[in-house]
Amino acid sequence: MSTRGERTERTERGERGRRGDTRQRLYRAAVDLIAEQGYTATTVDAIAERAGVAKGTVFYNFGSKEALFAGLLDHGIERLADALAEAARAPSASPVATLDALVLAQLRFVDEYGPFARVLLAEMWRAAWQEAVLRLRTSVLGVYERVLEEAVRAGELREGLDTATAATAVFGMVLTVAIERRALRPDHPLDDVHATLVELIHGRISGR
Amino acid sequence: MSTRGERTERTERGERGRRGDTRQRLYRAAVDLIAEQGYTATTVDAIAERAGVAKGTVFYNFGSKEALFAGLLDHGIERLADALAEAARAPSASPVATLDALVLAQLRFVDEYGPFARVLLAEMWRAAWQEAVLRLRTSVLGVYERVLEEAVRAGELREGLDTATAATAVFGMVLTVAIERRALRPDHPLDDVHATLVELIHGRISGR
DNA sequence: CCTTTTGAACTGACCAGTCGGCACAAAAAG
DNA sequence: CTTTTTGTGCCGACTGGTCAGTTCAAAAGG
């Protein structure tokens, strides 16, 4: 609610130039700290210090701690959605093969942006960030859901499958496993994890 | 840190009597508020007020906000572990059928103790609660893992399956879906959700 | 009586947000 | 070319308020 910030529309999405740099540094510092301590426990002073920036700069760029966090969520969700959309766009043998690629892409995303993934998992269901959750559901879960529907149409998955629930299930499964791996079993090879999850989804898990 | 709290070992697990009542009320109030606002944002004053208890009582019973929260986590994890263990103990046609029962039990638990489930999901990977996480892994995930191993031994699941990863996967999948259902689709019948998840796990999802 | 709870006052630390000012580059004026 | 102005990004001390935890005398309970 400051009169400042977002003053220059010249740089459009604020990605370029000095200011863009500062914002990236603040996102990074904030997500790291919030992943460790939680949103409320993370002070703006600490974020500024880790980013190598004065406290005033945070408010100059974002107006409030909440706005910084909202921007951070949007930014990360956009990256995740892009990563999944790209994986879905790549040519594959079948819709189910595309699903495998989505799982791998999500695993890789968490591997690379672990702190963001933890923040996402922790804050996903907080009422305060409704807007961001909505974006997550349409842009990220939407990718899963579309691929699942395609697989149903192609006859690869059972007709009448509740694709919305299945999409959430796969997303949550991958997120949980990937975060656990990063936290407790970092040398467990990503491909092994991917193989196990894919088995689970395909039903190749069954020995019958 | 405080010299007070945990004074009487007479009531052992502090479940009975006047003091036990107070503790239960405090657990409930705390878990509700923390689910909504997060740990740090929830003040002891607010917890005491919602529990209908004086602030001093919180510190008389738990010694600190942190100890209250640690007790709350332990308490909830124990309940969850009990619920799953009971489901696993019930007679069933096969290990895989037991797995289905576990999923249903977990769904029901989240349905009943939604706020706790949200707190668990949010705080699960925070370094501060290492001890509780360890208990979660041995007592809750352990139930899943044992059933999965049994299914492997019975030849119902593929030999060599990474049961540890699979256990985490199923647990995270169910937790995510159940919380999403509670938050956004409360009238979606629990049994439908259960059916979809069970299909996913069994591989009956495949139409081939 | 001994345990538990109450309620209110107090402290000391901590924190989001503010504000006046600095640095610097590029444009405008001379 | 030199000087002045302007806009932008950044700085960091400061403020007003909040909160965990303490203390304690008195009451309730069993």
Automatic annotation (TrEMBL), chains A, B:
Keywords recorded for this protein, A-Z: DNA-binding, Transcription, Transcription regulation
InterPro entries linked: Homeodomain-like_sf (IPR009057), HTH-type_TetR-like_transc_reg (IPR050109), HTH_TetR (IPR001647), KstR2_TetR_C (IPR041490), Tet_transcr_reg_TetR-rel_C_sf (IPR036271)
SUPFAM superfamilies documented for this protein: Homeodomain-like, Tetracyclin repressor-like, C-terminal domain
Signal peptide bounds: none
UniProt feature coiled coil, ranges: none
A Pfam family hit: TetR_C_24
Region span, Disordered: 1-21
DNA-binding region per UniProt: 43-62
All copies of domain HTH tetR-type, residue ranges: 20-80
Record-linked PROSITE patterns: HTH_TETR_2 (PS50977)
Superkingdom of this protein's organism: Bacteria
PANTHER family in UniProt: HTH-TYPE TRANSCRIPTIONAL REGULATOR RUTR, MYCOFACTOCIN BIOSYNTHESIS TRANSCRIPTIONAL REGULATOR MFTR-RELATED
Name of the molecule in the record: TetR family transcriptional regulator
Taxonomic path: Bacteria, Bacillati, Actinomycetota, Actinomycetes, Streptosporangiales
